[in-house]
């Protein structure tokens, strides 16, 4: 049985903000199925009482002295932006027109 | 006349310091070599000719003024395109960052500049460091100098190929699941993954933040150690940076080069010496183990029962972290923006931008990660993988109670032909079978050339406990002292 359907892959693509093509969906559905069936092997390990590891370095609450250091200028920060205006990143509209009006 | 491109980094540094050559001459020799061979190798995505010559002139001026030079002053270095370089293009092998010139230097690059090394340019890589062959670069594959029809490993294939092609004596890589060590193995060069947190991630474009580790690549163990010393150490700008000095890796490499391993106990990982590796790889590995025993090392077998689950655990953890990290490529602050016709919404533009800017492997991993983190699957996939990570760490801890370091082949197979594994993504993942456990544990590991199989290089991997990076350099240098270094056929 397939671990993942074409419809589920389409849903993942939407969640991932990837405007994939129909052709890509066909390819990815098969490939993701192979990958997911393989990685599902982790389920074979009896680990109910094992604590999870998120990080290998046991550091917590890393603090530094509160010293002012130079940062990027607005020009530097915006230097790679696809679009900028009035020292800000310019984005396409974020609200539907009927909501905005 | 000496061919300056054939010298080790240590030799170049000595020659520059003694006035036997100038940093400009050394740099020009490497730029000439790049011009002569890189159209066939494709190790470099960007060659910074002017920047390199300016840095070299600065070293020569400091020497002329009688200033003290660092141990690698005047030595050229190639930098994987995953590290930000102020004003110099940084693409991470992706179309989504094509043309981006970062406004700041990564910590590693700052340290390279401060040490007086000369950055030649940026090297090719699998897009966002996801891959084991450099075929997933958006800018075409890098070719292995040993056989141009074969892959140079990945993701840092450009850095490894630049070394093997004598385009640079030193290079920087980054290792999330083997991206320094596996390219080192298949190109006959040395690649070291430092302890996680031993080198700074500041300015390293993030793939999987709990695993990403930048590190040194070179043609000799001593050169790798010299570079490790320069780039390593605490960085307050990386919250996972370990606040301790770099272990004495240079001293350890020099000690190892004496060829004496008396009192060193090495464990051959049982799980990595059975099926899974090519016969030619195993034969070269076995011969090297005998060579290490002749140098005085005690060899035992050590079982690490959970290592076989490292690959599946990694391919859940790394994609999960990547799906989160790569959300920043949204067409707003840097890089590509596609489809902004004035009518489409931000979300539509974002989806079109990411669709156009990311290649297939990056898309696959983002979707796998999104799946593993989604409600309903989280516990069975991501949560379970994190528990397996604990068990793998315990395998290492228990092994290091018995032995000083673990050894295995670096990778199951020698360099494969370009195109051989791209149609089946999971076949590509198997290249990292032996390198991944170390990343999940966080310790250091090095790949050192140990022999040839059908004329192609084989690497031996040495894995050491966290912050015992010096130990792996000692063993690696000892092996190098007996098996020697390996030179590819002339290009």
TrEMBL record, chain A:
Q: Listed GO molecular functions?
A: ATP binding; glutaminyl-tRNA synthase (glutamine-hydrolyzing) activity; transferase activity
User: Which keywords annotate this record?
Assistant: ATP-binding, Ligase, Nucleotide-binding, Protein biosynthesis, Transferase
**Domain of life of the organism in this record?**
Bacteria
EC number(s) for this protein? 6.3.5.-
Sequence ranges of Basic and acidic residues compositional bias: 85-101
- Region: Disordered, residue numbers: 73-101
Q: Provide a GO biological process annotation.
A: translation
Does the keyword section mention tRNA-binding?
no
Kindly state which reaction or reactions the protein catalyses.
Answer: L-glutamyl-tRNA(Gln) + L-glutamine + ATP + H2O = L-glutaminyl-tRNA(Gln) + L-glutamate + ADP + phosphate + H(+); L-aspartyl-tRNA(Asn) + L-glutamine + ATP + H2O = L-asparaginyl-tRNA(Asn) + L-glutamate + ADP + phosphate + 2 H(+)
How does the annotation summarize its subunit structure?
Heterotrimer of A, B and C subunits.
Checking HAMAP family in the record gives: GatC
What family name appears in the similarity comment? Belongs to the GatC family.
Q: What exactly does this protein do?
A: Allows the formation of correctly charged Asn-tRNA(Asn) or Gln-tRNA(Gln) through the transamidation of misacylated Asp-tRNA(Asn) or Glu-tRNA(Gln) in organisms which lack either or both of asparaginyl-tRNA or glutaminyl-tRNA synthetases. The reaction takes place in the presence of glutamine and ATP through an activated phospho-Asp-tRNA(Asn) or phospho-Glu-tRNA(Gln).
Query: Can you name this protein?
Result: Aspartyl/glutamyl-tRNA(Asn/Gln) amidotransferase subunit C
The gene is gatC
